[in-house]
Amino acid sequence: MTQESPLHLPAIAILGAGSMGRAILQGLLSPHVRVATGIRITNRRLEAADDFATEPRVSAWVTSTNGEANREAVRGAKVVIVAVKPADSEEIIAEVAADLDEDAVVVSVAAGKTLAQLQAAAGAARAVMRAMPNTPAQIRRGVTGMAVGEHVSAVQRELVESVFATVGSVVIVDEERLNALTSISGSGPAYVFYLIEQWEEAAREQGFTHAEAALLVRETVRGAAELVIASGEQPEELRRRVTSPNGTTERAIAVLAGANLAELLDTAMQAAMARAREIAAGE
Ligand SMILES: NC(=O)c1ccc[n+]([C@@H]2O[C@H](COP(=O)([O-])OP(=O)(O)OC[C@H]3O[C@@H](n4cnc5c(N)ncnc54)[C@H](OP(=O)(O)O)[C@@H]3O)[C@@H](O)[C@H]2O)c1
């Protein structure tokens, strides 16, 4: 990774120290990032907060032992990231609403929860945003899609973009497209992991050991992903170069094309979008 220029951010609170909250925290702990007055993080149970006991840049609060934890954590914070489960997110926003700074922006990462729902929980005039990161954020290779609420200023939007840029790329979209984006990049790492699982199993069927199959498949996935990005070439062109007429790859691609992979992916994404609508409806 190239040397990054210093990034100075105002106080930030993360409510919920689960996998996504911690991934964002790791980005904010990058050497080039300075968060004024440190990063505040809360969690329901103690164990998670204990993990940060030796990190001077982080202040941790535990809600199971301190009923005021979330409210204390958000006071003075300019960005409040809500990283609890979707079913808990409106309740936690309503809990802290009265303690938010006037110019704070609330960013929910909850799948399916709409800007209108977040706005209703935070208060009609509050700045609220929806963000949909993905798990490669853990290694700062995430993609985060974002939708911006009507009371968010350009300065607040840029601030939130720079927070999520610490864990990867950021794309701003209209809210109507956020569920579709979630079905691509939010859920997408699981599609790739599933492909890797199935492909490794097929490799083991050919007599390779677990370790050999893992190396062959994972390094091929890594190499192909890095090649398509580094070369700037279209995937069709790169595929054409591997596919000699009447060669082995051509036969294999014919089988995959025959299974109509595009239609299968579309059906899978439609299922994810339907579930996002159910979550928004509280189902
Ligand atoms: N994981 C992903 O790939 C992903 C991707 C995009 C978006 N998201 C979104 O990110 C959110 C969190 O997902 P996750 O996978 O990180 O879930 P998770 O690992 O279960 O994290 C949620 C955390 O919130 C804590 N919590 C619950 N209620 C709390 C409260 N009132 N105050 C403070 N902390 C509280 C939980 O603590 P306890 O464990 O002690 O109960 C837990 O550590 C979800 O809304 C999800 O839709 C996740």
TrEMBL record:
Family: Belongs to the pyrroline-5-carboxylate reductase family.
Gene3D superfamilies listed in its UniProt record: NAD(P)-binding Rossmann-like Domain, ProC C-terminal domain-like
Pfam families for the chain: F420_oxidored, P5CR_dimer
Residue stretches making up the Pyrroline-5-carboxylate reductase catalytic N-terminal domain: 12-112
Keywords: NADP, Oxidoreductase
GO molecular function: pyrroline-5-carboxylate reductase activity
Pyrroline-5-carboxylate reductase dimerisation domain span: 175-278
HAMAP family: P5C_reductase
GO biological process: one example: L-proline biosynthetic process
Protein name listed in UniProt: Unannotated protein
Database matches in InterPro entries: 6-PGluconate_DH-like_C_sf, NAD(P)-bd_dom_sf, P5C_Rdtase_cat_N, P5CR_dimer, Pyrroline-COOH_reductase
